[in-house]
């Protein structure tokens, strides 16, 4: 139906042009004189041009988009260059080129507009560039470019959308943190769990008799030959510091700050050589098991680039459910923006397990805690839990403050 209406509209415009040509001819025939005939002959080129423009196919345009990068970090500058080519040098008085932007792009300031008016005339190739001073986190899709042209009087207008698709990812911002491992806090004071470092690259400090379960690579063959008995390398002891990180995905005005802090904290912990498990549950359920290294950071950052605050369940309920699945001694870290009675109940569950818990409450710069939130924060700290309110712009100071205290 819409196509039929468009066809009727185009046909009506052609009829109007034909009638205008006929009207000027009739006027010249009856009126006579130089002025009337000049008017008729002057209008003929514009009328014929309008007829030719209706025939000229906009599919003759071939558009290519070149971006300065395929992956970005939130807040970086986005630049795109549009190259427009066509085969036939048909004279076009003007064309309007408009990038069809996703909604999340339109709120950001542009230094050069993505909609531009060009005057190609007989040119077969045109180029223009637009920029965004900053772009938001997420997975973005540019689907097409609108082309619009017309004649001098606006009697004929043609428009089409060229399907030029480009998809790119914008990773979350992060702040360089100097991470400091905190000791576990239990009711009897401060302690930390000790486990044997079971890595072939660890430093051997002695030898002992072989026991079932020791790895083949741990056997010290020289010591075994000297003592005529299988001897195993004795490894240095170290504190275990595996971290299980929960991110709150309930609807929040502080969600972008939560993502930024989570990205910063993850990077800092992994840089220290610790293992991190990451749990993020909303409409989708994402659980990354304990792992260290650059690969773990990459998969977590890829998730953080696309994550949304779309959890249908309260954060405390999600954490309570998932913590039951963790059996080894780990440090639990919660990144949230909420302080409520449910939070106190959740902290109580961790205390019953004698679990090492650290909580980071993220707030925007200039936000003041309410009296209820201050009361909840005090109740949490009574459980010997490290709980810290972290304000936007002060992420890098969080562990410096802990060290000073």
TrEMBL record:
Stored Pfam families: DUF58
Keywords, comma-separated and alphabetical: Membrane, Transmembrane, Transmembrane helix
Name this protein carries in UniProt: DUF58 domain-containing protein
Native organism taxonomy: Bacteria, Bacillati, Bacillota, Bacilli, Bacillales
Residue ranges occupied by any DUF58 domain in the UniProt entry: 207-369
Stretches that traverse the bilayer: 12-30, 36-58
């Amino acid at each position: 139906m819409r196509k039929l209406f468009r066809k009727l509209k185009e046909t009506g415009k052609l009829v109007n042009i034909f009638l205008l040509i006929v009207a000027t001819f009739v006027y010249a025939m009856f009126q006579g004189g130089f002025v009337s005939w000049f008017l008729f002959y002057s209008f003929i080129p514009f009328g014929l041009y309008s007829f030719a423009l209706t025939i000229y196919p906009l599919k003759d345009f071939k558009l290519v988009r070149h971006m300065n990068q395929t992956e970005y970090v939130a807040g970086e500058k986005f630049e795109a260059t549009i190259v427009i080519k066509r085969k036939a040098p048909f004279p076009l008085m003007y064309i309007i080129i408009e990038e069809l932007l996703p909604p999340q792009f339109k709120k950001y300031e542009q230094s050069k507009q993505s909609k531009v008016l060009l005057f190609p005339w007989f040119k077969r190739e045109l180029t223009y560039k637009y920029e965004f001073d900053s772009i938001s986190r997420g997975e973005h899709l540019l689907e097409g470019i609108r082309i619009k042209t017309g004649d001098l009087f606006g009697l004929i207008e043609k428009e089409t959308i060229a399907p030029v698709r480009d998809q790119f990812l914008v990773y979350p911002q992060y702040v360089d943190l100097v991470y400091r491992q905190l000791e576990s806090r239990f009711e009897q004071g401060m302690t930390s769990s000790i486990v044997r470092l079971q890595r072939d690259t660890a430093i051997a400090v002695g030898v002992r008799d072989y026991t079932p379960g020791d790895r083949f690579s741990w056997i010290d063959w020289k010591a075994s030959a000297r003592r005529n008995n299988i001897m195993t390398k004795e490894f240095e002891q170290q504190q275990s510091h595996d971290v299980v990180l929960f991110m709150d995905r309930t609807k929040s005005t502080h969600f972008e700050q939560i993502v930024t802090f989570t990205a910063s904290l993850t990077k800092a912990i992994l840089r220290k050589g610790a293992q991190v498990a990451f749990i993020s549950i909303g409409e989708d359920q994402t659980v990354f098991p304990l792992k260290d290294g650059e690969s773990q950071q990459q998969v977590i950052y890829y998730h953080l680039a696309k994550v949304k605050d779309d959890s249908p369940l309260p954060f405390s309920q999600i954490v309570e459910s998932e913590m039951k699945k963790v059996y080894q001694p780990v440090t639990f870290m919660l990144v949230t923006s909420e302080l409520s009675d449910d939070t106190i109940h959740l902290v109580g569950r961790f205390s019953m397990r004698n679990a090492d818990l650290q909580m980071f409450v993220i707030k925007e710069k200039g936000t003041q805690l309410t009296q209820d939130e201050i009361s909840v924060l005090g109740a949490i700290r009574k459980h010997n839990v490290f709980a810290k309110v972290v304000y936007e712009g002060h992420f890098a100071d969080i562990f410096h403050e802990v060290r000073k205290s």
